[in-house]
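Suppose you are handed a protein chain with no further information: no name, no annotation, nothing but its sequence. What can you learn? This example shows the usual starting point.
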Amino acid sequence: MTSYAALAPRLPSPLEDVADDRFARHGVRLLLKRDDLIHPELIGNKWRKLLPNIEAAAGRPLVTFGGAYSNHLRATAAAGRLLGLTTIGVVRGHELAGRPLNPSLARCAANGMRLHFVDRSTYRHKTDPDTLAALLRAADAESAHVVPEGGSNAAAVRGCRALGEELRGRADVVAVACGTGGTLAGLAAGLAPEQRALGIPVLKGGFLAADTQTLQEHAFGARRGTWSLDERFHFGGYAHTTPELEGFADDFEQRHGLPVERHYVAKLLYGLTTLTAEGSFPRGTTVAAVITGRPFPDG
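A reasonable first move is to predict its three-dimensional structure. Written in structure tokens, the prediction is:
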């Protein structure tokens, strides 16, 4: 069994009360669940999702998947360095091979991750058994423990259940930005029956409700907890922002001294501010926003 005591995680992560008149004038109390402070390199839901998978790997190499700017790849590589594990990252975009690495992939490589680039068509089919087997052979990773893109699988969902347990009795609504649905699936399962979880998807497509329920079924055997999604705040899809979102994030940073990560956290906070203005939360409601990440200074 791998020991994580030397990594000194900050758990439970801090819960901060935020004075913001955009919420206060509607009688809503805003809390920030600072999962971005769990560990300087294994940030937020990356810690909660990766550590159960590292346990399941039992010392075998880890192979996982992501795009050229994937924070999941970056966190997996950092975990490998910190824990002495071999990591292999399958990167979407064969045209990237041979080019200078961007800052995110350069950090992965510096942390010891072996990068294997594949074309986008192959990447789209990476979960097909035959395609996956061929990818593992090509990456010399046939004995590796496979972690899916974004890190969301049954082990990760069970790991994120602790997030909900840490928030029991602390808020009426707990909101989180969603990419693959794994954090929401675990969070909702860990909350008390009278609490509800709200997911703000950062991708377009309307597929996340089914994916989240499937993850819960794989992790727990059935749908768990009370949860819902609001699909309106993706701002064009993953990794997309707009001047409006950038302006909102800049303003939030100035108001509260919190560096706001744009692709997930800004969309979450914008969504909660909008929902509060719309009257979606009754007066007296306490809303906790899960801060799952922070901006990287080098991209």
